[in-house]
Amino acid sequence: MTVDLAVVGLGYVGLPLVFEAVHAGMSVRGYDVNRGVVDGLNGGVSHIDDLSDEQVADLVSRGFAATTDASVLAEAKHIVICVPTPLAEDGGPDLGPVRAAVGDIARHLQPGQVVVLESTTYPGTTEEIVQPLLEAGGLKAGTDFHLAFSPERIDPGNEKFGAKNTPKVVGGVSPESTEAAAAFYGRVVDTVVRTKGTREAEMAKLLENTYRHINIALVNEMARFCHELDIDLWDVIDAAKTKPFGFQAFYPGPGVGGHCIPIDPNYLSYNVRARLGYPFRFVELAQEINATMPSYVVKRAQDILNEDGKAMKGATVLLLGVTYKPNIADQRESPAVPVAKHLREKGAAVVFHDPHVEQWRTNGSVTERVADLDEAIANADLVMLLQHHRDYDIEALAGASKRFFDTRGVAAESPTVQRL
Ligand SMILES: NC(=O)c1ccc[n+]([C@@H]2O[C@H](COP(=O)([O-])OP(=O)(O)OC[C@H]3O[C@@H](n4cnc5c(N)ncnc54)[C@H](O)[C@@H]3O)[C@@H](O)[C@H]2O)c1
């Protein structure tokens, strides 16, 4: 084995790991099934927000190379799997990419290798799915080779916490596997946290995401009745968060997006239901509340137009910010898509602006970003702020709008400006 690390799946999770490992002095290879991704990286082009083209080119100059050839996996002392785990049609996780990646690793598995799964999944995946596939060739996990789960906690766009200074949770199929994986991560990240086994590490990730999902649902539900009660929930949260213990602030919004929050808790509820036969009620309730926020904000938009004696049908609605998070280009599961869908169903003409998105794909159609934001503001019957990118001068935008609906609670309220 001639390289320290092979990363399988070179996306939002895999590439930051490549970056940290190369900068820790390791020799690193990347394996991905997408030829476009591989060619781009080898040519110094980044396809994720957290790494620039210059940084990717620098990785290549330091010896990093990506490939679509799985035989590279036989050369690596450590193999980390960072492939996607999307939702399947039935609501459970689609482990197709994980199975495919593990199959490739199994075909090249060497004694002494350390294999780690980072993809988010339900508890039991490492030992029930990954381990038997890897052991099919005769080598035993925990002794002949090592196997562990280490959940990815990357927060794209977070300028304070990246792969290096976010503690890494590690749980192996045996104490030896835990130590082997922890020793590897100890070379790459500042802090390693060991769990009893793989299931605890898998569940820790789902606890973190479910906690966010449920708390966002809590404030989303409160936003609905606070509006009816004429209580400013944003002011309420600002007051509550002054408590120095026992409270963490979460904020309402037009829905939840990204890969983690809307999807991962489903793995857990699906798994609990499939194995134990009863529902994980908190997750299912949170799912119901968060998933109906897009239609709720569209109803509020309709009420605002109604106050002006306007119908939604025929109105021009300008959406500001269509990504799922501020200051990044990632649009996965963005609630802006169902918001646009509901607006169009009611007959509105939907236009959009986002500093990070030039062309926006929604429900099969492609929309170009408005060419001139000032002109689009002047022409819109209603402007809806869906994502608060730092490039936006909110007060100026709100002040220039006929009606401004702020779903992020950042604009000062006025007769023409309403907050969620
Ligand atoms: N993006 C995030 O913010 C985030 C945060 C925490 C955890 N995660 C988890 O990490 C995992 C990876 O997510 P991501 O955001 O990096 O996905 P991504 O889509 O950005 O990247 C995944 C990459 O894997 C490649 N791939 C797919 N199947 C493959 C295979 N069989 N062999 C090799 N490569 C393959 C794809 O071509 C793609 O380049 C998921 O389980 C996700 O839930 C993501």
UniProtKB/TrEMBL annotation:
GO biological process, one term: polysaccharide biosynthetic process
GO molecular function, one term: NAD binding
Domain UDP-glucose/GDP-mannose dehydrogenase C-terminal: residue ranges: 318-413
Keyword hit for Signal: no
Keywords per UniProt: NAD, Oxidoreductase
Domain of life: Bacteria
Pfam families referenced in this protein's UniProt entry, alphabetically: UDPG_MGDP_dh (PF00984), UDPG_MGDP_dh_C (PF03720), UDPG_MGDP_dh_N (PF03721)
PANTHER family: UDP-N-ACETYL-D-MANNOSAMINE DEHYDROGENASE
Descriptive protein name: Nucleotide sugar dehydrogenase
Biological source species: Georgenia satyanarayanai
